[in-house]
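Listing S7. Sequence submitted for prediction.
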Amino acid sequence: METLKPQVAVQLIVFGAKAHDDIEGTLREVAAAGYGAFEGGHLFAMHGEARIRSLLDALHLGVSGAHFGYGEYADDANLEGIISYAKALGIENVMCSGVAAGTLEGYLASARRFNEVGRRLADQGIAFNYHNHDWEFKDLGGGTTGMQILAQETDPRYVRFNLDVFWLYYAGQNPAAFIREHARRAGYFHFKDGRRLVGADGKATPEFLELGRGEVPLEEAYAAAQEVGARWIVVEQDRSQLPPLEAITISRNYLREHFGI
């Protein structure tokens, strides 16, 4: 039986302030680049429900997921707003970036909160996904990392991972191996490319590039994502030297040409 191919979306972060100041122009460029869906924040709160629904209908766009920070999940009242928003648009995946604090205690407290939030979301048919960066892989002492704590202390039934393949690579992980290791939690992916730049001071900084223009082993990562049943491949580029429409079009063409999606 043929494996189902994942759906493709784009994260609005690459548009910067335009995504807030000109949502219509932003979404028109998303559609023009060949995407059928996108990931963003709470668009009803930012732009009004009627306007967003009108734009989605006119441009034939869907919403793959909604992305929020830890503080927005830590507040019960705000969590109810996230649930209402997700249900209103039929969003099945919500993402969280960040933890209570980048300490052992902070990760443990976050894991407890994530289990609670994930259970409440699951009851509503919504998956809670933690979005990794590179700093979750830093040693907190004794060889323990924040990502290890989140994996050990959260229930995979309620806490899934929105794996970002660039940040896995940047943190010194093998993206494909990490995806397979956490197959139970994987399914919603951020595909991002780029490279590590090392300055004269020896410090590394990330350079974000369009898909296929960086160092991330995207083909290996995609093969692993397919193995674990990827449902969404979301193009994410934190920033680009190119105009956003050009950048996301290059990445959209890469996915089509290399993976047939």
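Caption to Listing S7: primary sequence and predicted structure tokens for the chain studied. The two ends are 18 Å apart (CA to CA). The beta strands are 7-11, 37-40, 62-69, 93-97, 127-131, 160-164, 188-191, 193-198, 204-209, 232-235.
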